[in-house]
């Protein structure tokens, strides 16, 4: 039984008698509120809906697949649902199968075509520290052969010969050069890339980039892990310690908020509105007014916090940090390696992990 964050993807086909607009309106304004009212505290951490835009109107337009066969698989929308654990998912299932929920699904979907894919448990820590490395390498067409090491405890002896601590990541080049520590690897990969400006335009920029990368790796990540890991059973749960890590994490994000809010606003023509009414802009980056490795690295580490803890209420009170994260995490460089950013609707509760009886 997995204990970590658990993801389920559900594919929905709209009822043919409804227009795409009517289908979306029913799901957003009737079905989701119904689920929330019935589930209460058992509603998932996040429930993000994505709607397809096809011509002619779905579901008649044939889908294309790269691998495999469709076999009557068509859909007009899908939702990515994140739970704090597999147990939390199983506790939500009875809500999904209640008669009033099934009856409402029949009003706007073709329920027999609905498909749910269990993605399963995810490990946010490994992804967070490697996101910027993978993003820069992919954007610059730098070939990287990936070997997965799930944790330092599970690292094989062959890996420990390269990295005695068994930590993640480790880089081994074709000519045998071995490099450990995520910041060093990120800088090395970026220095080989097509975007040298990611390392700043001046020595001062470069120093500030290192500052924010170090801040995220040595300040945000340990406190975030100290808050998150006990909630999913990876570490022992001690309430005072969890509360302390929670307070420390929020304090670190307040530092980010204060820094970003202190930057001069961009010209009006450079502003753009994004989901939720938060304003993101292309000028408010961590260093020098341009996208740098600092933004990619810090956003990668911050993604776990936004996925599980920094909920709607927090984001409304921290518009600068929220706008920066949405803008950077929504950039093509990061989306290509970690997908669209997932934002928690409600914070993961700071309580011991629920166990299946």
From TrEMBL:
Transmembrane segments: none annotated. GO terms for cellular component: cytoplasm; nucleus. Pfam families: EthD, GST_C_2, GST_N_2. One of its GO terms (molecular function) is oxidoreductase activity. PROSITE patterns: GST_CTER, GST_NTER. It comes from the Eukaryota. Residues 117-197 form the GST N-terminal domain. Residues 202-350 form the GST C-terminal domain. Belongs to the tpcK family. Belongs to the GST superfamily. This is EthD domain-containing protein. It comes from Staphylotrichum longicolle.
């Amino acid at each position: 039984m997995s204990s970590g964050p658990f993801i389920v993807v559900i594919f929905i086909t709209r009822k043919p008698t409804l227009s795409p607009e009517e289908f979306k309106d029913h799901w957003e304004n009737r079905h989701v509120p119904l689920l929330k009212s019935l589930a209460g505290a058992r509603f998932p951490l996040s429930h993000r809906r994505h709607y397809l835009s096809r011509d002619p109107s779905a579901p008649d337009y044939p889908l294309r697949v790269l691998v495999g066969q469709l076999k009557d698989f068509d859909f007009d929308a899908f939702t990515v649902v994140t739970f704090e654990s597999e147990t939390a998912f199983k506790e939500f299932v009875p809500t999904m199968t209640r008669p009033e929920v099934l009856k409402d699904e029949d009003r706007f979907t073709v329920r027999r075509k609905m498909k749910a894919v269990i993605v399963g448990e995810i490990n946010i820590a490994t992804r967070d520290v490697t996101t910027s490395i993978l993003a820069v390498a992919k954007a610059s067409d730098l070939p990287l052969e990936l070997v997965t090491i799930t944790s330092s405890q599970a690292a094989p002896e062959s890996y420990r010969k390269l990295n005695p601590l068994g930590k993640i990541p480790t880089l081994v080049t074709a000519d045998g050069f071995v490099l450990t520590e995520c910041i060093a690897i990120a800088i090395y990969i970026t220095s080989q890339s097509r975007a040298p400006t990611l390392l700043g335009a001046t020595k001062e920029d470069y120093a500030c980039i290192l500052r924010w990368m170090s801040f995220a790796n040595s300040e945000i990540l340990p406190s975030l892990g100290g808050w998150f890991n006990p909630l999913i059973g990876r570490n022992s749960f001690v309430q005072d310690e969890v509360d302390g890590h929670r307070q420390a994490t929020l304090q670190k994000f307040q530092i980010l908020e204060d820094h970003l809010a202190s930057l001069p606003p961009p010209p009006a023509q450079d502003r753009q509105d994004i989901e939720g009414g938060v304003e993101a802009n292309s000028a408010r980056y961590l260093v020098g007014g341009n996208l740098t490795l600092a933004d990619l690295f810090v956003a990668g580490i911050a993604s776990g916090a936004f996925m599980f803890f920094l909920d709607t209420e927090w984001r409304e009170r921290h518009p600068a940090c929220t706008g920066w994260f949405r803008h950077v995490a929504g950039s093509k460089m990061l989306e290509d390696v970690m997908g669209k950013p997932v934002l928690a609707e409600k914070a993961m509760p700071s309580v011991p992990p629920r166990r299946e009886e």
